[in-house]
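Re: the request from the purification team.
They wanted to know what the chain is likely to look like in 3D before they choose a buffer screen. I agreed to run a prediction and write the result into the notebook, where they can find it.
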Amino acid sequence: MFKGSLVALVTPFDGNNRVDFESLKRLVDFHVEQGSDGLVIAGTTGESATLTRSEHIEVIERAVEYADDRLPIIAGTGSNSTSQTIDLSRSVQTLGIAAFLIVVPYYNKPVQEGIYRHFTAIADAVEKPVMMYNVPGRTVADLLPETVARLARHERIFAIKEATGSLERLQEIKALVDEDFRLFSGDDFTLLPFIQQGGHGVVTVSGNVAPQQVAKLCEYALAGEAERAAALDASLQPLNEALFVESNPIPVKWAVARMGLMNDAIRLPLTPYEKQHHDNMRAAMKSAGVVLEENA
């Protein structure tokens, strides 16, 4: 079962704003080498909202091909439409993915019963495990602990990515679900206490830039090696801060490009990383032990 560092992978684009599959392969190989525990493809960090349907499917298909069973691929297929989410999920579930990441419906502002029925309908319609994704800062709607508990009883809903950053929320969910239900942080800032208080890992943005460090942090935290985990966490906090001074994935794409793994092309309505933040990002990357390309 999943644990540790699941990296919410960026989607590389070329100079013509097309998906850059050569760079995608480079990224997948990089994460295998660096010890990431899994990859989430076409999630928020992967700019899923601006991928066409055919791109969305091909990015997932190619990622599975490039991973070649060396690490699991979780497919981000959620949207604010239940029927469209089911259609897309069914289209990719035979491609070799390990699970789905499904976000709480955004924009529509469903009540808790609507959220419950949304996830239930999707889980009923697919054949792979489902990780729910709660990020009310983006979706407005908040998947509350009582609704999580109802959904956790579904045979195919095995986990939640909880991105509120609230450790109190973690405890509320833990009190209501079975021990085998998996709890993943969606907030790099609070990753360490999240695991120390009973979480199983993280779906990480920072892991795009410092994959080995984030994977080791999860390993130390899960093993109860508090001092080693705390030291590593402290070295990563400046990076966490730098990666969220603008909307994700603007900063992280710029950072990964400075590592020579891809270029920093991004699709509208997101815009290039403001120059005023560049020096701070470079310093944060170096503090985390990240090697930048020469003259980056």
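For the purification team: The two ends are 38 Å apart (CA to CA).
Please add any questions underneath this entry.
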